[in-house]
Design goal:
The complex is a heterodimer. By secondary structure, chain A is mainly beta. Chain A has strands at residues 4-6, 9-13, 18-24, 31-37, 43-50, 55-58, 61-66, 71-76, 85-93, 96-99, 103-108. Classes of the chains: A mainly beta, B mainly beta. Chain A binds chain B through residues 1, 4, 6, 8, 31, 33, 35, 40-45, 48, 88, 90, 92, 95-102, and chain B through 4, 33, 35, 40-45, 48, 50, 56, 58-59, 90, 92, 96, 101-104, 106-109.
Chain lengths: 109, 115
């Protein structure tokens, strides 16, 4: 199977940028995703990137994909207290979805 | 409203007592899957289904069964629950085909405790 790894915690101040990193092991992964989980809720898709792209920007979110290093990152500009949540990196490969352990983002006022 | 519905949301049971967690989606998605979420381990896929009558094992299938008799329903069955199956379970569905992003739509989760 695929291994997807993330750091467990990130703490930033409101207004700063947050960068959440993820590494994966299988270079044949076709779709890569970032999901957000708020307390007591299921996961919701934040953004995604295809494996043939290097970067994708969507308002405050920027996704960078380094295929050579199998590294995916999510940058949140102007982080707000409402961005506090757990962020999961996920990859899709051969009919299966693989998730990282999730990064808990804490935004301090 | 497009949604994935799981029941029950909370359940406390005892070792060995068979239980079923239901999952239903109203988006006509071909793909459905079950995950368990444990602290520090993220989400791990239990089973998935590419379409009706087609199911396959994920990474942690031991102790679980599924069925896909209808497109909208994908129940998770624990024939003889054990305490190590205490977890938060999520059902999700997706329309995975050429041109789609493969976005997973998640239910709200079912918290299961096995004593």
């Amino acid at each position: 199977g695929e291994d997807v790894e993330q750091s467990l915690f990130l703490s930033v101040r409101e207004g700063d940028s947050s960068v959440i990193n993820c590494t994966y092991t299988d270079s044949s992964s076709t779709y890569l995703y970032w999901y957000k989980q708020e307390p007591g809720a299921g996961l919701q898709l934040l953004t995604y990137i295809f494996s043939n792209m290097d970067m994708k920007q969507d308002q405050r979110l920027t996704v960078l994909l380094n295929k050579k290093d199998k590294h995916l990152s999510l940058r949140i500009a102007d982080t707000q207290t409402g961005d506090s949540a757990i962020y999961f990196c996920a990859v899709y490969n051969f009919n299966k979805f693989y998730f990282g352990s999730g990064t808990k983002l804490n935004v301090k006022p | 409203e497009a949604q994935v519905t799981q029941n029950p949301r909370y359940l406390i049971t005892v070792t060995g007592k068979k239980l079923t967690v239901t999952c239903s989606q109203n988006m006509n998605h071909e793909y459905m899957s079950w995950y368990r979420q444990d602290p520090g381990l993220g989400l791990r896929q239990i089973y998935y289904s590419m379409n009706v009558e087609v199911t396959d094992k994920g990474d942690v299938p031991e102790g679980y069964k599924v069925s896909r008799k209808e497109k909208r329903n994908f129940p998770l069955i624990l024939e003889s629950p054990s305490p190590n199956q205490t977890s938060l379970y999520f059902c999700a569905s997706s329309s995975i085909s050429s041109g789609n992003t493969g976005e997973l739509f998640f239910g709200e989760g079912s918290r299961l405790t096995v004593l």
